[in-house]
């Protein structure tokens, strides 16, 4: 299912003044920052992802295509055709990428082949988000069927299913050490999972609307969550997980990750979060008028 309440993101063929443009715009004399428009999709663009080195950009659209762009030449290199895509993500090694679709599948692609290498089928509803494991051997998918699945990239088989959400799963994040995964859903609930056991380490309640984005800090000590409730929340992962390990033997433990800070944006739903290499947190959204 599409991301409810999120406006479609498109690579427009018109500039800010309504004129048709598909080249680099840099009217610095008027005080505007230079930016680049990429034109090619015939439908709304739901996701975009840079390669690890920033030299390529992937965009996924409802026109049933993924387009690969070069940021050096500002041109479209390849058009991959298949299913209608909600999400697309580069692998940590850049050459491969994964896509999620409303046809209930996820697919693994190679930049040099126009056909998918693997098709992961098993979800009972739309696959809304996809995320690579840090070792590139696995991908995780979140679905409108309220489950998260972990897939083996080599075989295309589902090796673990995570059950616990009560609404569609809209966002995923992997910890830098590869031990934990966080997932966010439409109701505003975040769940932290232990990948080795498949168990929920800690449910996090704090948002009151869709959790669109999750991001771990570079060293994995913090988890940031962005929501349609116009807030960014920071969660203490490092100290909280240590405390949870000490309580593993206690039945029915209700420990949660500690909320460090809530950062309101007033009127801007937060759709995407990223930590820089220096642990600066960048948030993007759409201004509600």
TrEMBL record:
Keyword DNA-binding: no
PANTHER family the record matches: CANNONBALL-RELATED (PTHR19879:SF1), TRANSCRIPTION INITIATION FACTOR TFIID (PTHR19879)
Gene Ontology BP, a term: transcription initiation at RNA polymerase II promoter
Protein name (Swiss-Prot/TrEMBL): Transcription initiation factor TFIID subunit 5
Compositional bias per record (Basic and acidic residues), positions renumbered to this chain: 21-33
Top-level taxon of origin: Eukaryota
Region Disordered: start-end pairs: 1-33
GO MF annotation: an example: RNA polymerase II general transcription initiation factor activity
A UniProt-annotated Pfam family: WD40
Organism whose genome encodes this protein: Aegilops tauschii subsp. strangulata
InterPro entries membership: WD40/YVTN_repeat-like_dom_sf, WD40_PAC1, WD40_repeat_CS, WD40_repeat_dom_sf, WD40_rpt
Coiled coil: none
Gene Ontology CC annotations of this record: transcription factor TFIID complex
Compartments, as annotated in UniProt: Nucleus
């Amino acid at each position: 299912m599409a991301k409810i309440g999120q406006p479609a993101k498109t690579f427009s063929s018109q500039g800010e003044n309504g004129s048709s443009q598909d080249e680099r715009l840099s009217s610095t004399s008027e005080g505007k920052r230079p930016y680049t428009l990429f034109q090619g999709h015939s439908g709304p663009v739901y996701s975009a992802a840079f390669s690890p080195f920033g030299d390529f950009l992937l965009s996924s659209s409802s026109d049933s295509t993924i387009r690969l762009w070069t940021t050096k030449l500002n041109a479209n290199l390849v058009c991959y055709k298949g299913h209608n895509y909600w999400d697309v993500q580069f692998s940590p090694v850049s050459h491969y990428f994964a896509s999620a679709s409303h046809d209930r599948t996820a697919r693994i692609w190679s930049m040099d082949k126009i056909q998918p290498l693997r098709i992961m089928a098993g979800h009972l509803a739309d696959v809304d988000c996809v995320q690579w494991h840090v070792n590139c051997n696995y991908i995780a998918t979140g679905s409108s069927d309220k489950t998260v699945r972990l897939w083996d990239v080599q075989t295309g088989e589902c090796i673990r299913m995570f059950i616990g959400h009560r609404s569609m799963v809209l966002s995923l994040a992997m910890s830098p050490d590869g031990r934990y995964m966080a997932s966010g859903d439409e109701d505003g609930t975040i769940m932290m999972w232990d990948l080795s056991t498949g168990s929920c380490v800690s449910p996090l309640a704090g948002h009151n609307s869709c959790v669109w984005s999750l991001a771990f800090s570079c060293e994995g000590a913090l988890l940031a969550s962005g929501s349609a409730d116009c807030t960014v929340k920071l969660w203490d992962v490092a100290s909280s997980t240590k405390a949870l390990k000490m309580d593993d033997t206690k039945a029915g433990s209700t420990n949660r990750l500690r909320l460090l800070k809530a950062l309101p944006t007033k009127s801007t739903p937060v759709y995407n979060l990223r930590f820089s290499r220096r642990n600066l947190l960048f948030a993007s959204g759409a201004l509600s008028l």
